[in-house]
């Protein structure tokens, strides 16, 4: 088998993967379809182009999970972070970058590397041999999308996300909410109590519908269409169709008894379902929405039990090609059915520039390690990079899998620390201290592996 690593897509993930593998001594070819084939969001032929906002979000590596991911990538000689730092703009605690010079820097540094070459072409098949990383992102070309769906089965490749908001379990007021599946259905106690229920009386429901209808909504991007709505209507669109629609849909109050008020029949019930194996995250069932983030938190905190909710991620609906990674990928990001093919970036079901680049960093190192005959271990789940890869390759619920930002809910809890809002600062500090030590240990161990 050839020792060359082929990377399809020169965005955040593909660029980082190429850089990491080349630094481990591997020859890399990046296959990038732009500028020959365009997407509706990219504007240039540059590698590492940012398609929308120019922010890499928080740069706080002690209290913020995305800031921690920055730290980990910097410690691992990350190209994307280095180019972001070089083109940084003032933005308070956030890392904002000057987008065109940023992408020009990424392109120039990749082009200048003696082990990296770029071939401007669209790849539309999954190859049978050779070493490949597919990092084609949310706007993967149609031809390649068809080839991937043929391999994985159409139901395992989505073309749009429909993200329901996700809440940290420890921020839910359980003196108002309770655990119960409708009609107590299920063989085991865990199944009979699989849902977390938040009840509303008539006045609360009416006020909620008013707020939903009045909330600011995000417009669709050019090139996005609303045809994908069937089966995943945003809650505000349901409310627009009639004030009772939600009560007959995701908020129906049937088959449930509130143990806090057994004699009172709820007018509507919002249900949340566990989102990860750790049980730290719950998604609000059927609550995909195009409400703007500010409006969304305000409206959702009107739900009894969620008054003080902290959100691991807010809802949205976007054009987004992504795999059902928990069923398709192994812990090395290889396609189980075709292990010479890895995936990286947003197509694996992470969300955001930083998370995508981080998955590129891991895929690049893992692919290079395999070619060198020194496998690179999956990083521990206590690190930000490890928590993400653990989530997408099996920690997440496969049935309801939707793209995920990095957040502390993905980390195994640190024992012995106070829960809730009061203990948050100490808890986050403990997560990030542990992550940094474990990440440095992993870097050292994997560097020895390939020495
Ligand atoms: C409209 C829109 C707005 C977004 N806004 C934000 C935002 O504000 N902040 C944020 O953090 N994230 C945002 N995202 C998500 C963003 O796309 C990702 O965070 C990030 O760019 C993903 O990195 P990636 O490397 O996986 O994909 P990309 O950066 O998109 O890179 C994929 C590359 O693959 C190429 N490609 C696709 N198919 C083929 C093929 N068949 N052959 C060869 N090359 C191919 C593409 O041209 C592209 O260069 C947005 C996404 C979209 C679609």
From TrEMBL:
Residues the record lists as binding FAD: 9-14
UniProt-listed Gene3D superfamilies: FAD/NAD(P)-binding domain
Catalyzed reactions: uridine(54) in tRNA + (6R)-5,10-methylene-5,6,7,8-tetrahydrofolate + NADPH + H(+) = 5-methyluridine(54) in tRNA + (6S)-5,6,7,8-tetrahydrofolate + NADP(+); uridine(54) in tRNA + (6R)-5,10-methylene-5,6,7,8-tetrahydrofolate + NADH + H(+) = 5-methyluridine(54) in tRNA + (6S)-5,6,7,8-tetrahydrofolate + NAD(+)
Essential cofactor(s): FAD
Listed EC numbers: 2.1.1.74
Domain of life: Bacteria
Residue intervals passing through the bilayer: none
InterPro entries: FAD/NAD-bd_sf, MnmG-rel, MnmG-rel_CS, MnmG_N, TrmFO
GO MF annotation terms: flavin adenine dinucleotide binding; tRNA (uracil(54)-C5)-methyltransferase activity, 5,10-methylenetetrahydrofolate-dependent
GO biological process: tRNA methylation; tRNA wobble uridine modification
Pfam families assigned to the protein according to its UniProt record, in alphabetical order: GIDA
MnmG N-terminal domain segment(s): 6-373
Subcellular compartments: Cytoplasm
Enzyme class: transferase
Biological role: Catalyzes the folate-dependent formation of 5-methyl-uridine at position 54 (M-5-U54) in all tRNAs. NAD-binding protein involved in the addition of a carboxymethylaminomethyl (cmnm) group at the wobble position (U34) of certain tRNAs, forming tRNA-cmnm(5)s(2)U34.
Similarity comment: family membership: Belongs to the MnmG family. TrmFO subfamily.
Protein name: Methylenetetrahydrofolate--tRNA-(uracil-5-)-methyltransferase TrmFO
The organism of origin for this protein: Sedimentitalea nanhaiensis
Organism placement in taxonomy: Bacteria, Pseudomonadati, Pseudomonadota, Alphaproteobacteria, Rhodobacterales
